[in-house]
Amino acid sequence: MRQRYGEIQAQGADVVAISFEPKDRLFQLTRQLQLPFPILSDPERDVYSAYSLAQGNWLKIFSPGTVWTYVKHFARGRRYHHAASDWRQLGGDFVLGEDGTVLYEHRGRTPHDRPTVADLITELARS
Length: 127
Description:
Elements: H1 5-10, E1 17-19, H2 23-33, E2 39-41, H3 46-50, H4 58-61, H5 64-75, E3 92-96, E4 102-107, H6 117-126
Parallel strand pairs: 1-2
Antiparallel strand pairs: 3-4
């Protein structure tokens, strides 16, 4: 997302990430990854609830696809400390219109079930 952020802005859009992690952890993560967009803290998971983002069962969380995704990240030297994380919380990706209507939605069925940034940019072009 960071690498293609300019393309997203060129379409008149912006990125906001939401996490249930504490603010101090998100501040560190934003600096460490040099993210050009904000990550907002939602420890009560109000946004997760509003967008019907569920928690996965252990079989989905530790599915072969998820394990393989983390192996690839670790092999590339990427690390993420899950000390405060809830491994079961599933994420989602949404494209919202200026009026707040959902133009595109993808609710993850497993932790690695995410659309590519290219797919999200394509959805932006359609809206």
